[in-house]
Amino acid sequence: ETRARRRAIGHVLLATAQVQQREIEQACNTATKAVELLETLRSNRGAEYLDDFQARLEPYREEAVVREFGARLDLQAAA
Question: What pTM value is reported for the model?
Answer without folding.
Answer: 0.90
